[in-house]
Amino acid sequence: MQTIGPVKITGTVVEAEVMVPLATFETPLWPSTNRGARVALRSGGIRAVIVDERMTRSVLVEAPGVEEAMRVVSTLKNHRDKICDITEATSKYAEFVDIHFQIVANLIFIRLEMRTGDASGHNMVTKAAEALQDWLLAEYDDLKYISISGNYCTDKKVSAVNGILGRGKNVIAEVIVPAKICHRYLKTTPEKIVELHIKKNLVGSIVAGSLRTANAHFANMLLAFYLATGQDAANIVEGSQGIVHAQVRNDDLYFSVTLPNIIVGTIGSGKELPFVRDNLRMMDCLGNREAGKNSRRLAVIAAAVVLCGELSLLGALTNRGELMQAHERLERR
């Protein structure tokens, strides 16, 4: 584990220069991400916003037939207030957001979406979903329990639904890098980075059949950040499904990352470890704030770090041989 930065972030959630801990076995990740942070700092900082936030769990029940399944779903759509009362009663921090349904034959998939304060929310929303499930099974005698999690969530698996409906915090971070900064620190040009992004991240991802993903290595930064801050590291599966967008603007580089599924918390399992608490405190993600503000701050910092690492790697890849030379120098000495 090493600290990189400062990462300068501006916006309504974070307005600060933050030192960020990253835990990884990939030695080049620290200097590379640090280079991206240096570029962003000299470019005026990274602007970041949270578009949306929600944690999900999907209940799966079985009806005798499709007509009964249709009747249950039709009735539930008119009981949103009741569903809200049932699910929010399970925790003082649980806040009902939305509910979605899918019927497959006689199977009913019910996707519950909740805000969960400063917790990542896996257990909180599962408890709320279980309360909803128990009410359903009591209310409809002909329904059969199948699973408290029906994969329509979708938890720690690649899917389209998380990007469309949301799971975790949807964060977008952007920076405008002057051409002279590109030349000096990335040894490349805005035009080369944009061209590489189109041919590698966009066309290459289409060729590979990637699902709602157009990036070079979001997972590297997310894993390092998650391990350093006590997160459930398996959530990098959906977390790394994100999109880079790059343009040349007045000879400068506009560069952004969109991460619709950042799943982080500042309380809960793992957060009691001394090194985790030290790291959260260093980033000012602990303290007596309104519920949810610490975790939102942490999510924005995560997205900013992803931007730093992504920008640095794409810059390196525009220069033939640089990537391998860096790995040999840093990992094989």
Helices and strands in order:
Elements: E1 2-10, E2 16-22, H1 29-42, E3 46-62, H2 66-76, H3 80-88, E4 95-104, E5 107-115, H4 122-139, E6 144-147, H5 161-165, E7 168-177, H6 179-186, H7 190-208, H8 218-228, H9 236-239, E8 243-249, E9 252-262, H10 274-282, H11 293-317, H12 322-331
Parallel strand pairs: 1-3
Antiparallel strand pairs: 1-2, 3-5, 3-6, 3-7, 4-5, 7-9, 8-9
Helix pairs in contact: 1-6, 1-11, 3-4, 8-11
Write a compact overview of the structure shown.
The chain contains twelve helices and nine strands. The chain is of the alpha+beta class.
Descriptive tags:
nine-stranded mixed beta sheet, alpha+beta, 43% helix, 12 helices, 333 residues, Alpha-Beta Plaits, 3-hydroxy-3-methylglutaryl-coenzyme A Reductase, Chain A, domain 2, 2 domains, elongated
Query: Might you state the CATH topology name of the largest domain?
Result: 3-hydroxy-3-methylglutaryl-coenzyme A Reductase, Chain A, domain 2
Label the structural class: alpha+beta
Major sheet description? 9 strands, mixed
**β-sheet strand percentage:** 25-35%
- Could you give the count of β-strands? 9
What's the multimeric state?
single chain
Would you tell me the overall average pLDDT?
96
Helix content, binned percent = 40-55%
- The secondary-structure element order is EEHEHHEEHEHEHHHHEEHHH
The tally of helices reads 12
CATH superfamily of the largest domain: 3-hydroxy-3-methylglutaryl-coenzyme A Reductase, Chain A, domain 2
CATH architecture of the largest domain: Alpha-Beta Complex
Number of domains: 2
Radius of gyration: 22 Å
State the distance separating the first and last CA atoms: 19 Å
> Looking at the structure, what is the overall shape?
elongated
CATH class of the largest domain: Alpha Beta
List segments where confidence is low: pLDDT < 50 over at least 5 consecutive residues. Answer: none
